[in-house]
Design goal:
The protein has two domains: 205 residues, Pathogenesis-related Protein p14a, CATH 3.40.33; 91 residues, Immunoglobulin-like, CATH 2.60.40. It is built from six helices and 21 strands. The strands form eight sheets. It has a four-stranded antiparallel beta sheet, with no helix packed on it. It has a four-stranded mixed beta sheet with strand order 15-21-20-17. Strands 11-13-12 form a three-stranded antiparallel beta sheet. A hairpin with a 6-residue loop joins strand 5 and strand 6. The two termini are 32 Å apart.
Length: 404
Protein backbone atom coordinates (compact mmCIF):
# COMPACT_ATOMS: atom_id res chain seq x y z
CA UNK A 1 0.00 0.00 0.00
CA UNK A 2 1.42 3.32 -0.98
CA UNK A 3 0.64 5.86 1.72
CA UNK A 4 0.35 9.63 2.03
CA UNK A 5 1.35 11.86 4.95
CA UNK A 6 -0.88 11.62 7.97
CA UNK A 7 -0.67 14.41 10.45
CA UNK A 8 -2.07 13.46 13.73
CA UNK A 9 -5.47 13.09 15.12
CA UNK A 10 -5.40 15.72 17.77
CA UNK A 11 -7.44 13.49 19.99
CA UNK A 12 -5.20 11.62 22.39
CA UNK A 13 -5.88 9.16 25.09
CA UNK A 14 -4.40 6.25 26.94
CA UNK A 15 -5.74 2.72 27.26
CA UNK A 16 -4.49 0.60 30.12
CA UNK A 17 -5.49 -3.04 30.56
CA UNK A 18 -9.14 -3.46 29.63
CA UNK A 19 -10.09 0.06 30.69
CA UNK A 20 -9.98 3.19 28.57
CA UNK A 21 -8.56 6.35 30.10
CA UNK A 22 -9.12 9.63 28.33
CA UNK A 23 -6.25 12.09 28.16
CA UNK A 24 -7.61 15.40 26.89
CA UNK A 25 -5.25 18.32 26.96
CA UNK A 26 -5.19 21.86 25.65
CA UNK A 27 -2.29 21.49 23.25
CA UNK A 28 -3.66 18.46 21.43
CA UNK A 29 -7.37 19.00 20.91
CA UNK A 30 -7.55 19.51 17.20
CA UNK A 31 -8.97 16.24 15.97
CA UNK A 32 -12.53 17.20 16.52
CA UNK A 33 -12.54 20.79 17.14
CA UNK A 34 -10.34 22.43 19.55
CA UNK A 35 -7.09 24.33 19.03
CA UNK A 36 -5.51 23.35 15.73
CA UNK A 37 -2.49 21.10 16.02
CA UNK A 38 -0.44 19.66 13.19
CA UNK A 39 2.16 16.96 13.46
CA UNK A 40 5.63 17.85 12.26
CA UNK A 41 8.10 15.11 13.16
CA UNK A 42 11.02 16.40 15.18
CA UNK A 43 13.28 13.54 14.27
CA UNK A 44 14.24 11.87 11.01
CA UNK A 45 11.94 9.29 9.47
CA UNK A 46 14.77 7.62 7.61
CA UNK A 47 16.88 4.67 8.60
CA UNK A 48 19.00 6.22 11.35
CA UNK A 49 17.41 7.54 14.50
CA UNK A 50 19.61 9.33 17.02
CA UNK A 51 18.51 10.27 20.52
CA UNK A 52 16.98 7.01 21.65
CA UNK A 53 16.50 6.65 25.40
CA UNK A 54 16.47 3.13 26.79
CA UNK A 55 16.14 1.55 30.24
CA UNK A 56 19.45 1.80 32.14
CA UNK A 57 21.25 3.20 29.10
CA UNK A 58 21.63 6.90 28.39
CA UNK A 59 21.37 6.83 24.62
CA UNK A 60 21.78 4.62 21.61
CA UNK A 61 23.50 6.15 18.62
CA UNK A 62 21.27 4.60 16.01
CA UNK A 63 18.89 1.86 15.17
CA UNK A 64 17.16 0.71 12.02
CA UNK A 65 13.70 1.80 11.07
CA UNK A 66 10.94 -0.72 11.25
CA UNK A 67 10.67 -2.62 8.01
CA UNK A 68 7.36 -1.91 6.38
CA UNK A 69 5.19 -4.99 6.58
CA UNK A 70 2.56 -6.07 4.11
CA UNK A 71 -0.78 -4.44 4.74
CA UNK A 72 -4.46 -4.97 5.19
CA UNK A 73 -6.85 -7.59 4.05
CA UNK A 74 -9.03 -7.32 1.01
CA UNK A 75 -12.03 -9.06 2.52
CA UNK A 76 -14.31 -10.02 -0.35
CA UNK A 77 -12.28 -8.08 -2.93
CA UNK A 78 -10.66 -9.99 -5.76
CA UNK A 79 -6.85 -9.90 -5.69
CA UNK A 80 -5.00 -7.29 -7.68
CA UNK A 81 -2.65 -8.68 -10.30
CA UNK A 82 0.86 -9.20 -8.96
CA UNK A 83 3.94 -8.16 -10.88
CA UNK A 84 4.86 -10.57 -13.66
CA UNK A 85 8.15 -12.04 -14.78
CA UNK A 86 9.44 -11.89 -18.31
CA UNK A 87 7.74 -15.13 -19.39
CA UNK A 88 4.38 -13.77 -18.31
CA UNK A 89 3.99 -16.08 -15.34
CA UNK A 90 2.89 -14.64 -12.00
CA UNK A 91 5.65 -13.59 -9.64
CA UNK A 92 5.11 -13.65 -5.90
CA UNK A 93 4.53 -10.17 -4.56
CA UNK A 94 6.70 -8.60 -1.88
CA UNK A 95 5.98 -6.22 0.96
CA UNK A 96 6.65 -3.24 -1.28
CA UNK A 97 5.51 -4.39 -4.72
CA UNK A 98 1.75 -3.90 -4.40
CA UNK A 99 0.02 -0.79 -5.69
CA UNK A 100 -1.90 1.90 -3.84
CA UNK A 101 -4.53 0.58 -1.39
CA UNK A 102 -3.27 -3.00 -1.75
CA UNK A 103 -1.05 -5.31 0.28
CA UNK A 104 0.83 -8.56 -0.21
CA UNK A 105 -1.08 -11.47 1.29
CA UNK A 106 1.28 -13.74 3.24
CA UNK A 107 -0.64 -16.89 2.41
CA UNK A 108 -1.11 -16.45 -1.33
CA UNK A 109 1.78 -14.08 -2.09
CA UNK A 110 -0.68 -12.13 -4.24
CA UNK A 111 -1.58 -8.48 -3.92
CA UNK A 112 -5.04 -7.92 -2.48
CA UNK A 113 -7.11 -4.84 -1.73
CA UNK A 114 -7.03 -3.22 1.69
CA UNK A 115 -10.15 -3.49 3.88
CA UNK A 116 -12.84 -1.18 2.59
CA UNK A 117 -11.42 -1.27 -0.95
CA UNK A 118 -12.30 -3.42 -3.96
CA UNK A 119 -10.86 -4.00 -7.42
CA UNK A 120 -12.01 -1.81 -10.26
CA UNK A 121 -10.20 -2.28 -13.55
CA UNK A 122 -7.16 -3.62 -11.72
CA UNK A 123 -7.05 -0.77 -9.18
CA UNK A 124 -8.18 -0.92 -5.58
CA UNK A 125 -10.75 1.78 -4.96
CA UNK A 126 -12.81 2.63 -1.87
CA UNK A 127 -16.19 0.99 -1.67
CA UNK A 128 -18.97 3.57 -1.55
CA UNK A 129 -20.81 3.67 1.78
CA UNK A 130 -24.47 2.71 1.75
CA UNK A 131 -27.31 3.77 4.00
CA UNK A 132 -27.06 1.69 7.20
CA UNK A 133 -30.82 1.14 7.16
CA UNK A 134 -30.31 -1.04 4.07
CA UNK A 135 -27.96 -3.43 5.90
CA UNK A 136 -29.30 -6.94 6.50
CA UNK A 137 -28.69 -9.08 9.56
CA UNK A 138 -26.69 -11.79 7.78
CA UNK A 139 -24.29 -9.31 6.19
CA UNK A 140 -23.72 -7.44 9.46
CA UNK A 141 -22.99 -10.69 11.31
CA UNK A 142 -20.71 -12.00 8.57
CA UNK A 143 -18.62 -8.83 8.63
CA UNK A 144 -18.65 -8.77 12.43
CA UNK A 145 -17.35 -12.35 12.53
CA UNK A 146 -14.56 -11.46 10.11
CA UNK A 147 -13.46 -8.57 12.32
CA UNK A 148 -13.57 -10.72 15.45
CA UNK A 149 -11.54 -13.68 14.19
CA UNK A 150 -8.33 -14.46 16.03
CA UNK A 151 -5.10 -13.82 14.14
CA UNK A 152 -2.62 -16.72 14.30
CA UNK A 153 1.00 -16.13 15.18
CA UNK A 154 2.73 -13.25 16.91
CA UNK A 155 1.38 -9.76 16.34
CA UNK A 156 4.85 -8.22 16.40
CA UNK A 157 8.39 -9.14 15.40
CA UNK A 158 11.47 -7.37 16.74
CA UNK A 159 14.01 -7.31 19.58
CA UNK A 160 12.76 -6.53 23.08
CA UNK A 161 14.11 -3.88 25.47
CA UNK A 162 16.76 -2.70 26.04
CA UNK A 163 17.42 -3.09 22.31
CA UNK A 164 14.67 -0.56 21.54
CA UNK A 165 13.93 -2.11 18.17
CA UNK A 166 10.54 -0.82 16.93
CA UNK A 167 10.12 -3.97 14.87
CA UNK A 168 7.02 -4.46 12.76
CA UNK A 169 3.38 -5.38 13.20
CA UNK A 170 2.48 -8.64 11.47
CA UNK A 171 0.56 -8.51 8.22
CA UNK A 172 -2.35 -10.40 9.74
CA UNK A 173 -2.65 -8.11 12.75
CA UNK A 174 -2.46 -4.91 10.74
CA UNK A 175 -5.16 -6.47 8.58
CA UNK A 176 -7.22 -7.07 11.71
CA UNK A 177 -6.85 -3.51 13.02
CA UNK A 178 -7.79 -1.94 9.71
CA UNK A 179 -10.61 -4.39 9.03
CA UNK A 180 -12.20 -3.67 12.40
CA UNK A 181 -11.88 0.11 11.96
CA UNK A 182 -13.39 -0.12 8.48
CA UNK A 183 -16.22 -2.30 9.78
CA UNK A 184 -17.34 0.36 12.26
CA UNK A 185 -17.17 3.02 9.54
CA UNK A 186 -19.17 0.82 7.16
CA UNK A 187 -21.69 0.14 9.91
CA UNK A 188 -22.49 3.84 10.37
CA UNK A 189 -22.31 4.66 6.65
CA UNK A 190 -19.08 6.65 6.27
CA UNK A 191 -16.31 6.19 3.70
CA UNK A 192 -13.39 3.82 4.37
CA UNK A 193 -9.95 5.07 5.37
CA UNK A 194 -7.03 4.73 2.95
CA UNK A 195 -3.70 3.74 4.44
CA UNK A 196 -0.36 5.56 4.20
CA UNK A 197 2.53 3.16 4.55
CA UNK A 198 5.18 5.86 4.17
CA UNK A 199 4.60 6.94 7.76
CA UNK A 200 4.41 3.44 9.25
CA UNK A 201 7.97 3.51 10.67
CA UNK A 202 7.19 6.66 12.66
CA UNK A 203 4.15 5.02 14.21
CA UNK A 204 6.13 1.88 15.03
CA UNK A 205 8.46 4.13 17.03
CA UNK A 206 5.40 5.80 18.55
CA UNK A 207 4.03 2.42 19.68
CA UNK A 208 7.44 1.48 21.07
CA UNK A 209 7.54 4.65 23.18
CA UNK A 210 3.96 4.24 24.36
CA UNK A 211 4.46 0.61 25.39
CA UNK A 212 7.63 1.37 27.34
CA UNK A 213 6.18 4.44 29.08
CA UNK A 214 2.63 3.32 29.74
CA UNK A 215 2.15 5.57 32.76
CA UNK A 216 3.06 8.63 30.70
CA UNK A 217 0.11 8.31 28.33
CA UNK A 218 0.58 10.55 25.28
CA UNK A 219 3.30 12.67 26.93
CA UNK A 220 6.49 10.66 26.52
CA UNK A 221 9.18 12.21 28.76
CA UNK A 222 12.52 13.22 27.24
CA UNK A 223 14.26 10.59 29.35
CA UNK A 224 11.55 8.01 28.62
CA UNK A 225 12.51 4.47 27.72
CA UNK A 226 12.93 3.82 23.99
CA UNK A 227 11.88 7.38 23.14
CA UNK A 228 12.61 9.00 19.78
CA UNK A 229 11.60 12.60 19.00
CA UNK A 230 9.32 11.67 16.12
CA UNK A 231 7.78 8.75 18.02
CA UNK A 232 7.04 11.02 20.98
CA UNK A 233 5.52 13.66 18.69
CA UNK A 234 3.32 11.03 17.08
CA UNK A 235 2.14 9.80 20.49
CA UNK A 236 0.94 13.31 21.31
CA UNK A 237 -1.24 13.43 18.21
CA UNK A 238 -2.55 9.86 17.92
CA UNK A 239 -5.07 7.44 19.24
CA UNK A 240 -2.91 5.31 21.52
CA UNK A 241 -3.47 2.20 23.58
CA UNK A 242 -1.53 -0.13 25.87
CA UNK A 243 -2.22 -3.42 27.62
CA UNK A 244 -3.73 -5.14 24.60
CA UNK A 245 -2.45 -8.61 25.39
CA UNK A 246 -1.03 -9.17 21.93
CA UNK A 247 -4.31 -8.32 20.19
CA UNK A 248 -3.91 -4.84 18.67
CA UNK A 249 -7.33 -4.91 16.97
CA UNK A 250 -9.00 -4.86 20.39
CA UNK A 251 -7.93 -1.22 20.70
CA UNK A 252 -10.49 -0.32 18.03
CA UNK A 253 -13.34 -1.66 20.16
CA UNK A 254 -12.12 0.36 23.12
CA UNK A 255 -11.93 3.52 21.02
CA UNK A 256 -15.49 3.09 19.77
CA UNK A 257 -16.86 2.10 23.16
CA UNK A 258 -15.05 5.06 24.74
CA UNK A 259 -15.95 4.31 28.35
CA UNK A 260 -14.29 7.43 29.72
CA UNK A 261 -15.91 9.08 32.70
CA UNK A 262 -16.39 12.44 30.98
CA UNK A 263 -18.36 10.84 28.11
CA UNK A 264 -16.69 13.17 25.63
CA UNK A 265 -16.51 10.42 22.98
CA UNK A 266 -13.41 11.99 21.50
CA UNK A 267 -11.99 8.62 20.49
CA UNK A 268 -15.23 7.38 18.89
CA UNK A 269 -15.64 10.64 17.05
CA UNK A 270 -12.01 10.56 15.92
CA UNK A 271 -12.29 7.08 14.42
CA UNK A 272 -15.71 7.50 12.78
CA UNK A 273 -15.30 11.04 11.42
CA UNK A 274 -16.23 11.19 7.72
CA UNK A 275 -13.49 13.81 7.28
CA UNK A 276 -10.59 11.51 8.14
CA UNK A 277 -8.15 10.70 5.37
CA UNK A 278 -5.00 8.58 5.01
CA UNK A 279 -4.20 6.51 8.08
CA UNK A 280 -1.01 5.11 9.58
CA UNK A 281 -0.58 2.77 12.51
CA UNK A 282 2.10 0.99 14.47
CA UNK A 283 2.11 -1.78 17.07
CA UNK A 284 4.93 -2.87 19.38
CA UNK A 285 5.11 -5.74 21.87
CA UNK A 286 8.74 -5.77 23.01
CA UNK A 287 8.38 -3.86 26.25
CA UNK A 288 9.30 -5.10 29.72
CA UNK A 289 7.31 -8.24 30.55
CA UNK A 290 5.80 -8.16 27.07
CA UNK A 291 4.24 -4.71 27.42
CA UNK A 292 2.59 -3.67 24.17
CA UNK A 293 1.21 -0.50 22.64
CA UNK A 294 -0.46 0.87 19.52
CA UNK A 295 -0.54 4.24 17.75
CA UNK A 296 -3.15 5.10 15.12
CA UNK A 297 -3.50 8.44 13.32
CA UNK A 298 -5.18 9.94 10.27
CA UNK A 299 -5.16 13.14 8.27
CA UNK A 300 -8.01 15.39 9.34
CA UNK A 301 -10.23 16.79 6.57
CA UNK A 302 -8.42 14.70 3.95
CA UNK A 303 -11.12 12.15 3.08
CA UNK A 304 -12.63 12.87 -0.31
CA UNK A 305 -15.37 10.28 0.10
CA UNK A 306 -19.06 11.04 0.51
CA UNK A 307 -19.95 12.76 3.77
CA UNK A 308 -23.41 12.09 5.23
CA UNK A 309 -25.73 14.84 6.49
CA UNK A 310 -25.60 13.01 9.81
CA UNK A 311 -24.64 9.63 11.20
CA UNK A 312 -25.33 7.74 14.41
CA UNK A 313 -23.96 4.93 16.52
CA UNK A 314 -25.61 2.52 16.83
CA UNK A 315 -26.84 3.22 13.31
CA UNK A 316 -30.23 2.73 11.68
CA UNK A 317 -30.77 -0.94 10.89
CA UNK A 318 -29.22 -3.99 12.56
CA UNK A 319 -26.05 -3.89 14.64
CA UNK A 320 -24.21 -6.50 16.76
CA UNK A 321 -25.77 -6.79 20.22
CA UNK A 322 -22.27 -6.63 21.74
CA UNK A 323 -22.46 -2.86 21.17
CA UNK A 324 -25.91 -2.38 22.67
CA UNK A 325 -24.75 -0.71 25.89
CA UNK A 326 -22.04 1.46 24.37
CA UNK A 327 -24.27 4.52 24.19
CA UNK A 328 -26.26 6.22 21.43
CA UNK A 329 -24.38 9.05 19.74
CA UNK A 330 -25.68 11.39 17.06
CA UNK A 331 -23.26 13.33 14.82
CA UNK A 332 -24.06 16.16 12.43
CA UNK A 333 -22.88 19.57 11.19
CA UNK A 334 -25.66 21.55 12.87
CA UNK A 335 -25.83 22.55 16.52
CA UNK A 336 -26.71 19.76 18.94
CA UNK A 337 -26.95 22.00 21.97
CA UNK A 338 -30.73 21.67 22.21
CA UNK A 339 -31.01 18.28 20.53
CA UNK A 340 -33.20 15.69 22.21
CA UNK A 341 -32.89 11.98 21.51
CA UNK A 342 -35.64 9.54 22.51
CA UNK A 343 -35.18 5.77 22.39
CA UNK A 344 -38.38 3.73 22.51
CA UNK A 345 -38.87 0.00 22.21
CA UNK A 346 -41.16 -0.50 19.23
CA UNK A 347 -44.64 -1.09 20.60
CA UNK A 348 -43.35 -0.54 24.11
CA UNK A 349 -41.98 2.01 26.54
CA UNK A 350 -39.23 4.58 26.29
CA UNK A 351 -35.72 3.55 27.36
CA UNK A 352 -34.34 5.80 30.13
CA UNK A 353 -31.11 7.49 29.09
CA UNK A 354 -28.50 9.89 30.45
CA UNK A 355 -27.70 12.87 28.20
CA UNK A 356 -24.11 14.06 27.70
CA UNK A 357 -23.80 17.15 25.47
CA UNK A 358 -20.59 17.31 23.47
CA UNK A 359 -18.58 20.12 21.97
CA UNK A 360 -18.21 20.97 18.28
CA UNK A 361 -15.46 19.63 16.08
CA UNK A 362 -13.10 20.84 13.38
CA UNK A 363 -14.20 17.97 11.21
CA UNK A 364 -17.50 19.82 10.75
CA UNK A 365 -19.53 17.42 12.89
CA UNK A 366 -20.98 18.11 16.31
CA UNK A 367 -22.05 15.21 18.48
CA UNK A 368 -24.07 14.25 21.51
CA UNK A 369 -24.25 11.06 23.58
CA UNK A 370 -27.21 9.35 25.22
CA UNK A 371 -26.29 6.45 27.49
CA UNK A 372 -29.04 3.81 28.03
CA UNK A 373 -29.84 3.18 31.68
CA UNK A 374 -31.51 -0.15 30.89
CA UNK A 375 -30.34 -3.13 28.85
CA UNK A 376 -31.57 -3.29 25.27
CA UNK A 377 -33.30 -6.51 24.33
CA UNK A 378 -31.51 -8.57 21.69
CA UNK A 379 -33.68 -8.93 18.58
CA UNK A 380 -36.06 -6.15 19.57
CA UNK A 381 -36.53 -3.10 17.37
CA UNK A 382 -36.05 0.34 18.88
CA UNK A 383 -37.28 3.61 17.45
CA UNK A 384 -34.88 6.55 17.79
CA UNK A 385 -36.33 10.05 17.43
CA UNK A 386 -34.14 13.15 17.22
CA UNK A 387 -35.77 16.56 17.68
CA UNK A 388 -34.50 20.15 17.85
CA UNK A 389 -31.93 19.47 15.14
CA UNK A 390 -33.72 19.75 11.78
CA UNK A 391 -37.03 21.50 11.24
CA UNK A 392 -38.68 18.08 11.23
CA UNK A 393 -37.85 15.18 13.57
CA UNK A 394 -35.34 12.59 12.38
CA UNK A 395 -36.64 9.09 13.06
CA UNK A 396 -35.07 5.70 12.47
CA UNK A 397 -35.30 2.12 13.66
CA UNK A 398 -32.37 0.15 15.03
CA UNK A 399 -32.05 -3.43 16.25
CA UNK A 400 -29.37 -5.21 18.31
CA UNK A 401 -28.91 -8.66 16.79
CA UNK A 402 -27.21 -11.79 18.07
CA UNK A 403 -24.12 -12.48 15.97
CA UNK A 404 -22.26 -15.72 16.65
Amino acid sequence: MKRHQPIGLARVFRLLGGVAFLGSFAACQAILGYDDLSFTPEGPADATIPDVSVPDVATIDAFADAVSDGRADGGDAAPVDATVVADGGPQACTRTSCATNAYCDDATKKCACDPGFATNGGDCRPTAPVAPATHVDADVCQRYAATSADVPGDAWTGASVPACDPGAISVGDEVAVLRRAQFFRWLVGVAPLPVDENRAPVFQRCAMAVANNAAAGPFIPVAGACRTPDGAAAAATSLIGVGLGGKPADAVDRWIRDADADRSLEDRRALLSPALGPTALGYYAGGTNGADGICFASDLLANTGAKPDWYAFPPPGPFPAAYAQWGFSFHGPKSVQNLQLLVTKKGGAAVPVDRFPLVSGQDGYNAILYKPLANLEVGATYVVTVTNYDAAPIVWETKPIACP
